[in-house]
Automatic annotation (TrEMBL):
Keywords: Glutamine amidotransferase, Signal
Domain DJ-1/PfpI: from-to ranges: 47-219
Entry keyword annotation includes Signal: yes
Signal sequence, start to end: 1-28
Top-level taxon of origin: Bacteria
InterPro entries noted in UniProt: Class_I_gatase-like (IPR029062), DJ-1/PfpI (IPR002818), INH-QAR (IPR052158), TAT_signal (IPR006311)
Protein name: Glutamine amidotransferase
CDD domains found in the cross-reference section: GATase1_PfpI_2 (cd03139)
Matches recorded under SUPFAM superfamilies: Class I glutamine amidotransferase-like
Pfam families assigned: DJ-1_PfpI
Gene3D superfamilies: 3.40.50.880
UniProt keyword annotation of Ribonucleoprotein present: no
Amino acid sequence: MNRRQLLRTTTALGVAAPTAAAASGAAAAPGAAPAPASAQDPSRPLRVHVVMFDGVEELDFAAPYEVLSAARFFTPRPVEVRYVSATGARAVTGAYGTAVRGLRSWDPGAADVLVVPGGGYARRDDPGVWAEIDRGTLPRALAAAPRPGLTVAALCTGVMLLAAAGLTAGRPCTTHHRAGADLRRQGGLVKDARVVDDGDLVTAGGITSGLDLGLRLVRRELGADAAAGLEEMLEYEARGTVWSA
């Protein structure tokens, strides 16, 4: 057993009792926000799809993927995380040359959470967000994805893909600081916050915010105990302001 697996196992054991108690039907505190629709059945897996494309920023997709994948150590609820592509099951190449294989086909109807990373926004002629906007395939797929029970999330310049899909117009949101003016021009109500939680739309600003976005989604979908256990394992505390509707 390697050190990381040992840390995961021992930390998970440390929070197993309170997590199990929460799952056993303990009443919610008065005034507590209702659980997300996807959390109503704890026996059903939480299904997370991370959207991939050529030029995607490595940290943008890796951070939420790791946080959400590791969440299964801190909850009795199954968690399934996969990489998907709107252009079919294939491989993609990240902004720094990382090849990612084994992507699954686009199927947002089989997801509870859709996470859209960014990448390549500063280099309009390179693969990345601008190329995907110009091609149109991914924005059209994102525009058709929303439905009751699905949370659409994005971080950094991946939020601009949501803007191109018309999903941020008139909605509180955030993005990388260098793309904020573009997001406002496209109708987004940009908030000065690390994470903006507007119910079925959750956005985060900056490349490293994938950690904070992941922890916010874990807290919403799996509870505070799971988020606290993850922070201990990762040796990272969620930082910055969370704006919540």
